[in-house]
Design a protein that fits this description.
The complex is a heterodimer of chains A (about 190) and B (about 325).
Chain A lengths: L1 H10 L3 H23 L2 H17 L10 H15 L17 H13 L2 H16 L2 H12 L4 H8 L3 H29 L1
Chain B lengths: L9 H5 L2 H9 L3 H10 L4 H13 L10 H16 L11 H21 L5 E5 L5 E4 L5 E4 L3 E5 L4 H4 L1 E11 L6 E4 L3 E5 L3 E7 L2 E8 L1 E6 L4 E5 L2 E5 L6 E5 L13 E8 H12 L2 E4 L7 E7 L3 H9 L5 E5 L2 E5 L1
Parallel strand pairs in B: 5-6, 15-18
Antiparallel strand pairs in B: 1-4, 2-3, 3-5, 4-5, 5-8, 6-7, 7-10, 8-9, 9-12, 10-11, 12-13, 14-16, 17-18
Classes of the chains: A mainly alpha (about 190), B alpha+beta (about 325).
Chain lengths: ~190, ~325
């Protein structure tokens, strides 16, 4: 596996291997972080600290079987270890600091037709109403397309509990979502 | 095929890995179709489960922009170069631009020691790849595309070679040059899309200014909203305008739209996006297609391409046949 090679190279002090791993995982990791805490600065800081610590502790790294799960576990610890989830500490923003997100949202809006926009809106509403853990697992299972084994490792569950949690999450989503299904049937 | 699926509800089915893989990637298509045929009473359950999976494909969470990714890597890189053990309390943003210049010099020392002559990064068929270059410019590679550069000297010469299609967001600095088989593109700091594939050469400028030179030494300078194209047949550079409605091209969002373009071009892109092989019935290549398809679900993409032209398609593994 190509990724294993990057981890090995990182262990032997290759900074480019770290960058390869960054390129490989940054999107998934960023989105997962946002699902966990809705705070872009906090997620970026966590990613920064994580990669810095991989570098600083590279010689002692164990090469993970799933790099993705490994990084997500690290993200989870960093986000949850830093106090309460609702981010009370407000950091004053530097000029232009919000730029990234604003442009992305702006771009996304251009891309969406009104119908899609509405569908996404409904989905966000439904997603917002299910529990944190349900939202987290739906994100990993469907948006990041992860295997149950990986998800179980990240959330520290066994395989069957991960499966059950997905079932419960889907049931909860569906409850919030009847309107979307009707919409989809007209649409597809 | 697992017979106990008969006891599944639409929800348990939608959580089943083999089912998700069928809906998303068409894996085990024959077995699943066969199973559905044998359990007609489950048809509604299956249809509902399919919709659940399909409606959970696009996340509402915005990704970090390519420049955001480049910037964050810049921060990490700077912390590494300065030997930081932990993140400083204060925000680094205004500082790292300074730091990057220093980091670039330092980085050379690190890189020189463990480099091979050149670096090739590629996105395979069915893939899209985002890359942050050593000097923090961001490149998004479309499917079946690659860039090659000498990483030993990249920070200084900022030169690379492209095959296929990519969108570049170049950090301001010295000249940044992209070489291709059909021409060269030179910029200072800007964003542009570049296609160089099968004789086609097309540059579209999204911000700033771009200098285009074809392999026959013809030069054009284009600005935002302009594109320069060299066709397979005529070797001249043609200039045209396009409307910049978003900061990045559609393909980066997995959308591919066409206006009166030969079906064969559309099919070439489809093959790259889904890593499939399409057999087109002779005589269909030059049909003109207007419409769009998206990456993600091959069935819907095929449907969107075939129905306006009154064609049909059949899929067998990785081979798709399109006929009248």
């Amino acid at each position: 596996m190509e990724e294993t090679k990057h981890w090995e190279n990182l262990k032997s002090g290759d900074i480019k291997a770290l960058q390869e791993l960054y390129n490989l995982h940054i999107s998934g990791l960023f989105k997962y972080g946002i699902v966990l805490c809705h705070d872009e600065d906090k997620v970026k800081d966590a990613i920064h600290d994580m990669f810095l610590s991989f570098w600083n502790n590279r010689s002692g790294l164990t090469i993970p079987t799933s790099g993705k799960a490994y990084l997500m576990v690290s993200m989870r610890r960093r986000i949850f270890d830093k106090g309460p989830k609702s981010n009370l500490e407000t950091i004053p923003l530097e000029d232009g600091h919000l730029d990234d997100r604003i442009t992305t949202d702006h771009e996304v809006q251009w891309m969406l037709s009104e119908e899609e926009e509405e569908q996404r809106h409904k989905m966000e509403h439904a997603m917002a109403r299910i529990s944190d853990r349900q939202r987290e697992i739906i994100h990993m299972k469907y948006f990041q397309q992860m295997e149950y084994e990986e998800i179980a490792r990240v959330m520290d569950l066994n395989y069957q509990s991960a499966r059950n949690l997905v079932t419960r999450a889907l049931a909860a989503l569906r409850k919030e979502w009847i309107t979307i299904f009707i919409f989809l049937m007209l649409w597809i | 095929m697992n017979e106990h699926f008969t006891s599944y509800t639409s929800i348990t089915l939608a959580g089943e890995d083999s089912f998700i893989r069928w809906v998303r990637h068409g894996e085990g298509d024959a077995e699943w179709r066969n199973w559905v045929a044998r359990h007609a009473e489950k048809q509604i359950t299956v249809e509902e489960a399919r919709k659940i999976v399909l409606s959970l494909t696009g996340s509402a969470i915005g990704d970090l922009s390519p420049s955001g990714k480049a910037e964050l890597w810049g921060r990490i890189h700077e912390s590494i170069q300065s030997g930081t053990q932990q993140r400083p309390k204060k925000h680094l943003k205004p500082l790292w631009t300074w730091g990057l210049a220093a980091a670039a010099t330092l980085a050379l020392f690190v890189w020189i020691s463990n480099l091979t002559a050149s670096e090739k990064l590629m996105a395979k068929a069915g893939e899209k790849k985002e890359v942050v270059l050593p000097e923090a410019s961001a490149v998004t590679l479309n499917a079946k595309s690659s860039i090659t550069y000498r990483d030993k000297s990249f920070n200084q010469d900022r030169e690379l070679y492209l095959e296929g299609e990519a969108f570049f967001k170049v950090q301001k600095g010295s000249t940044f040059t992209v070489h291709t088989d059909y021409g060269t593109v030179t910029v200072l700091g800007t964003s542009f899309n570049l296609i160089s594939r099968d004789g086609r050469f097309e540059v579209a400028c999204y911000t700033g200014k771009v200098k285009v030179e074809s392999s026959s030494k013809e030069q054009q300078i284009i600005t935002a909203g302009e594109s320069a194209t060299r066709n397979k047949s005529e070797k001249k550079l043609n200039r045209s305008t396009f409307e910049v409605i978003a900061a990045t091209p559609e393909w980066m969002e997995g959308k591919f739209s066409y206006e009166s373009q030969p079906l064969s071009d559309v099919i070439d892109e489809l093959e790259r996006q889904y890593d499939i092989n399409v057999k087109l019935e002779p005589g269909l290549e030059d049909l003109k297609y207007t419409g769009l398809f998206e990456s993600g679900d091959l069935d819907s993409a095929l449907y969107l391409i075939t129905w306006p032209l009154h064609l049909k398609s059949s899929t067998k593994g990785k081979t798709v046949t399109i006929s009248r």
